[in-house]
C-alpha cells in the first residue's frame, strides 16, 4: 500500500538528512513511511540477534524467547489499541488550535500548571508536541510555560507511560520515576525564566 | 495493581472520547476510527520488532559486564554511563524501554536504569534531531538540553538514596 513511497525516495539515509535540511514548514511534517530507515535498522538488528542466539544456544532457545515475548506482545496489544483510538479521537475533538487557545497564552504559576497538565494528557508523538509548543509561543505564552509543557510531555506523558513504559518496566519503579520527575517541569520552567530572561529563544523564524 | 488501575483508566478515557466523538454526529467517530486503523498498521510491525528484538538482545547481553558497569554497586559512575547511553539509544519508546528492561534483568541497578530512562526521555538523539531541532530551532533546543543536562544524574542519585 505505501511501499511506493519508499521506492522513489532514494536512499533512506539520504532522505533523513534532507528532511532535516528542508524542514522550513515544520507545521506540515513529511508523511511517514511504513518502512523507513529506523524500522529497517531495528529489523536487521533483531534478525542478527536471533541468528546469534540460534548459533550459540540452538533452535529450542530461540523458540522459548519467541513464546515468552509473544505473551508480552499479546498483553501490550489491547493497550496500544486503546491508546491509538484515544489519540485519534482526541486529535479530532480537540485540535491543536483549541489546545493552544486554552492553554497557550498563559504565564506564571497558573500557566505552568496548565502547561504541565497539557503535557501529561497530550496524546501522540513529537509530530504533535513540538508544533504545539510553537503554537503556544505564537499565542504569547511565556518561555517558562513552553519549557514546562515540553518537559512535562517528555517526562510525564500518560500515553507513553501507560502503554510503553509500564509494559516493560516494573510498575513500582515507574511509580518512583513519575514521583521524582513530577516537580522537574516546574523547576526547568523557572530555570528557563531565570537564565534566559529577555533573550529570544523562539523567534519569528519558527512560526 | 497499579497497572490494572491505569489500564482501566486508559480504557475509560478511550470509551469517553469515543462517546463524545459519536455524539458530535458529524463523522468524527468514523474518521478517528480510520486514523486509528492507519496508525495501528504503522505501529504493529514496530512493536513486534521491538519486543522480539529486545528479547534476543537481552539473551545476548553479557551479564557480568552489565552488572559490573551498571549494577547497583557501580554507583555514580554507573549512573553517568547509563545516562550517556540513554541519550544515544536509537528508535522509539519500545526499543528504549525494552533495552532498559533487558539491562535490569541482566543485573543493572534501578538507579542506573532510572538515569538511562530519564536521559532517553529528555535527550533521545533521533527525536531531537528529526523533530525538535527543525521545529524549535537550535537556540531553544540548546537551552532546553543545557537546563535538563543534570536531571538524569539527579533522578538516578535520588533513586539510589531512596533505595537505601
Automatic annotation (TrEMBL), chain A:
Membrane topology reported for the UniProt record: Multi-pass membrane protein
Region spans: Disordered: 1-29
Alphabetized InterPro entries for the sequence: DUF318 (IPR005524)
Keywords tagged on the record: Cell membrane, Membrane, Transmembrane, Transmembrane helix
GO cellular component: a single term: plasma membrane
Cell compartments where the protein resides: Cell membrane
Coiled-coil region list: none
Superkingdom field: Bacteria
Major subcellular location class: membrane
TM helices/strands, residue ranges: 34-55, 70-90, 111-134, 140-162, 174-196
Keyword Transmembrane helix among record annotations: yes
KW Membrane (keyword) present: yes
Pfam families in alphabetical order: ArsP_1
Family (UniProt): Belongs to the UPF0718 family.
Protein name (Swiss-Prot/TrEMBL): Permease
Organism: Roseibium aggregatum
Lineage, top ranks: Bacteria, Pseudomonadati, Pseudomonadota, Alphaproteobacteria, Hyphomicrobiales
From TrEMBL, chain B:
Segments passing through the bilayer: 42-61, 68-89, 95-123, 144-163
Lineage top rank: taxon: Bacteria
Keywords, alphabetical: Membrane, Transmembrane, Transmembrane helix
Name of the featured protein: Permease
